[in-house]
Amino acid sequence: MILSDKTIIKMLDENSLVIKPITKEQIQPASVDIRLGNTFSIVDDTPSGIITLESKTNYKTIKTDTYLILPGQFVLATTMEYFELPDNLTAFVEGRSSLGRMGLFIQNAGWVDPGFKGEITLELYNANRCAIELKCGRRVGQLVFAEMDDHALNPYNGKYQGQTDATGSRVFMDPDKF
């Protein structure tokens, strides 16, 4: 079941769902707007020009209130908000259609597991032929919350738990998984 604004407000008031900072204007009828934080990371060039899944990928990270994403550029960014989801609630990350219509694709693999705590790292891609100026605090997407039929047996406690800032891939930490 998708949560309504009324249920989201109730959960925030009860502190069973944590979103900080948040304004009442961010709460939409069936979602919560997420805003762009001030941390951006791009993959560091490798001598071979190849990124492998078995070794750590290095990133160049900057903190700034304005970032110019170039045409065809991929950058990691973070949300301004910090989240704590209970173990019976999951969320979908959706980009804003008005930004998608400008060629800015926003994703985070689309899913936030029950029990997750931290800022959400967003993957941004500029599919336009022009650079796009990004500003900290700008609404860039939304979270749609869905209540599960029961509490998770194993709430999220993975390698991104507690992340802050734009967090790079940690796929190298689980080489036994596909």
TrEMBL record:
The active site is at residue 123. It catalyses: dCTP + 2 H2O = dUMP + NH4(+) + diphosphate. DCTP binds at residues 96-101, 113, 121-123, 142, 156, 159, 163. Pathway: Pyrimidine metabolism; dUMP biosynthesis; dUMP from dCTP: step 1/1. Its EC number is 3.5.4.30. The record marks 110-111 as: Important for bifunctional activity. GO terms for biological process: dUMP biosynthetic process; dUTP biosynthetic process. Keywords: Hydrolase, Nucleotide metabolism, Nucleotide-binding. GO terms for molecular function: dCTP deaminase (dUMP-forming) activity; dCTP deaminase activity; nucleotide binding. It holds the Pfam family DCD. Gene3D superfamilies: 2.70.40.10. Bifunctional enzyme that catalyzes both the deamination of dCTP to dUTP and the hydrolysis of dUTP to dUMP without releasing the toxic dUTP intermediate. Belongs to the dCTP deaminase family. NCBIfam families: dCTP_deam. Homotrimer. This is dCTP deaminase, dUMP-forming. It comes from Ruminococcus albus SY3. The gene is dcd.
